[in-house]
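Q: Here's a chain of 192 amino acids. Please give me its 3D structure as tokens.
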Amino acid sequence: MNQNIDKQIKLKAQNIKLLVLDVDGVLTDGTLVYGPDGEQVKHFNVKDGVGIKLLQAFDVAVAIISAKDSQPLARRIEHLSIKHAYTGCKDKLLALTELTSKLSIDFDEVAYCGDDVIDLKVMQKVGLSLAPADAYSMVQEYADVVTLAKGGKGVAREVADLILGSRMDLKQAYIKAMLPEFEERKILKDKS
């Protein structure tokens, strides 16, 4: 991500209370691997996990809203202690509306990262919209920020750095990630 983020984007990022992530094409490279029992494999980037955990450590909620559902995704959600997960979701805007109501936050306090046209309705409603470097071109046109990273290659980490960096020196934020208890941090899971 460009280190010279303009002031308007920085102000939007400072206001964020909830980051919502699509999965395929954002947290993964979009590759789907199927076996005889359905989807078997998803490739997640460990760097994204650190960013997601840091956001939660600094009281920025993180949610997953994905059109697909799979066992590998369920494991990743649990491993990262993501409390709000809408998987197999056909109407992402409806899911986000339910979640913002539950959390008592406004759409302008939400950042959303998506990569394809199914994400556009949500991206047009939120305070900060983001897309990976390899997102569909129309999605990039609607995004406030296009990351340098491609899907599955650290997009969520870049987004986390943008949000946290708008509020504090990133070196200070990363001190928490160096503590032994950082990896032990568990948030009670509350699947919405």
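Q: Can you summarize the key feature?
A: The CA atoms of residues 97 and 140 lie 23 Å apart.
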